[in-house]
Amino acid sequence: xxxxxxxxxxxxxxxxxxxxxxxxxxxxxxxxxxxxxxxxxxxxxxxxxxxxxxxxxxxxxxxxxxxxxxxxxxxxxxxxxxxxxxxxxxxxxxxxxxxxxxxxxxxxxxxxxxxxxxxxxxxxxxxxxxxxxxxxxxxxxxxxxxxxxxxxxxxxxxxxxxxxxxxxxxxxxxxxxxxxxxxxxxxxxxxxxxxxxxxxxxxxxxxxxxxxxxxxxxxxxxxxxxxxxxxxxxxxxxxxxxxxxxxxxxxxxxxxxxxxxxxxxxxxxxxxxxxxxxxxxxxxxxxxxxxxxxxxxxxxxxxxxxxxxxxxxxxxxxxxxxxxxxxxxxxxxxxxxxxxxxxxxxxxxxxxxxxxxxxxxxxxxxxxxxxxxxxxxxxxxxxxxxxxxxxxxxxxxxxxxxxxxxxxxxxxxxxxxxxxxxxxxxxxxxxxxxxxxxxxxxxxxxxxxxxxx
Length: 453
Fold this sequence. Notes:
Blueprint: E1 6-10, H1 15-27, E2 30-33, H2 40-50, E3 54-57, H3 62-65, E4 72-75, H4 85-93, E5 106-112, E6 120-125, H5 126-140, E7 147-150, H6 157-169, E8 172-175, H7 181-190, E9 195-198, H8 200-209, E10 219-222, H9 229-236, E11 246-252, E12 257-261, H10 264-267, E13 276-277, E14 282-286, E15 300-305, H11 317-323, E16 324-325, E17 328-337, E18 343-347, E19 353-355, E20 358-360, H12 362-370, E21 375-385, E22 389-398, H13 406-413, E23 425-429, H14 442-450
Parallel strand pairs: 1-2, 1-3, 2-5, 3-4, 7-8, 7-9, 9-10, 10-11, 22-23
Antiparallel strand pairs: 5-6, 11-12, 12-13, 14-15, 15-17, 16-17, 17-18, 19-20, 21-22
Helix pairs in contact: 1-4, 5-6
């Protein structure tokens, strides 16, 4: 493949995925990472949008892309077919074309949710990885014998960030295929694991299975969604020898993973805070209408800038025009700063649902539900849940004289939406609540759905 070509990857976590990341770097290719939980239709659209020249899939996902037009598709060889890790490493480095890296070049294109319901494509640069890794090391420290237990998907920027940080730090990764409590606890108990990255759902489940932590563990990094103060406090009670382990963080795909992080020692006194921005980065809390700064304690929109922030979405000038103001990236998230300058995130992007660390945009789910011939309208909201952070809930208005239940609707959208996007709770009503202007009253729907979740 020519340099700067786009290489799509549709795989579960596995060593071959890490080798592909390194190989693409050496060959000057741009990775396009696809969520392995998506349907064939969802992946097909993303491949077309990014104009991938080649897509490499593992055996479990090959069927989703096999037969697609206008793109070459290949199944990844197993490591044992490559002759073991040593030979596979040589394979990754073969035909390398560059002895250095342009920091502003795009390492990967990663998809995130967008305001239209279609995912947005985020070009992630080497600069973002570098400054994110350096900022994290200044805030949380690095030790020569660190082993980072990595269970976050490599198609997410959080999972990929671990790969680059370990490369820059010269430390090791204990890569897990998925979040399996038995396997993770075995790693924690049998290996010298020092760090682990989790989303709140994972932390909740893990803390339920343990009464103590191994001596080697020094950090549990929580991100991907807002962790409730109750959850952080509960994990804090399981600290190692009385020393706090949990570090809360705030980030997103657009910043190459982390932007702000609270040190474990400070989480105890401020469990709801995500701390301060990393080195060389800035944030403001502003009135979104006037762009004026709010004082400490006042809620406003979180605006950020710095070397970890992307330069713009791929081929999306409308979104870029909306989200960038005078060099500041408007996150759409709501929060406030306390007198010490620590950030508290009140609500992530307006209607975005964060379930188990995955982004779900209601517009996409609502569009799928409206395709059913009996459905007149649908409103999808996130309902708070201790384990998942939020679960997806749908209130559905049917056409006159039509009758069906949530099970029928769920079966109808099964082929169109990934499992994590499908509602866990359905409520069929005669009419959706509306505002005075005739719009669906989303806040009221959310309140009503709380009682059914």
